[in-house]
Amino acid sequence: MRIAIGADHAGFRLKQQLAQHLKDLDHDVDDLGTHGEESVDYPDFGAAVGRAVVAGDADVGVCVCGTGIGIGMAANKVPGVRAAVVHDATSARLAREHNDANVVCLGARLVGSAVAQDIIDVFLSASFEAGRHVRRIDKLARLDGRA
Ligand code: RB5
After folding, report:
1. How far apart are CA 115 and CA 119, in angstroms?
2. Which of 18, 94, 105, 144 could link 72 by a cystine bridge, Cβ 3.0 to 4.6 Å?
3. Is residue 65 flagged as an active site residue?
4. Is 6 touching ligand 1 by the criterion CB < 6 Å?
5. Ligand 1 in contact with 66 (CB < 6 A)?
6. Segment 89-106, tens digit of pLDDT
7. Model confidence pLDDT, tens digit, residues 9-42
8. Domain spanning 2-143: which CATH class is it, in words?
């Protein structure tokens, strides 16, 4: 799978760990930064990941900041992005199955690296259930002006 990953300074270390984890699983990882612990602004990286997904350069995106909230807000500003902030494997699975989330957002100050890896693994292995959820996803697309 082609995966775009991005983080701000608060998410940098966890991003590095997750990028390595994804490479170990033979995914094609596009690291969009940040590339160090110097203070940066999460909107730049959430937008970059979101744009990569919507452009079709990545199948899914992974975003990390301190809470996952700010970078998720930024990603969701890109029309076509359905970014979900998740804190456990169950919310990661449901974000895929019900919401067809195409970006997963994690809070490095809230979840440890083992939980974060579980979240990523479950997010990537779960699939959209379609059915009744399609109508709702279509409504999200209309809110984005995309349908
Ligand atoms: C950075 O200090 C922090 O505000 C940011 O990583 C994030 O948690 C915002 O949502």
Report:
1. 6
2. 105
3. yes
4. no
5. yes
6. 999 999 999 999 999 999
7. 999 999 999 999 999 999 999 999 999 999 999 9
8. alpha beta
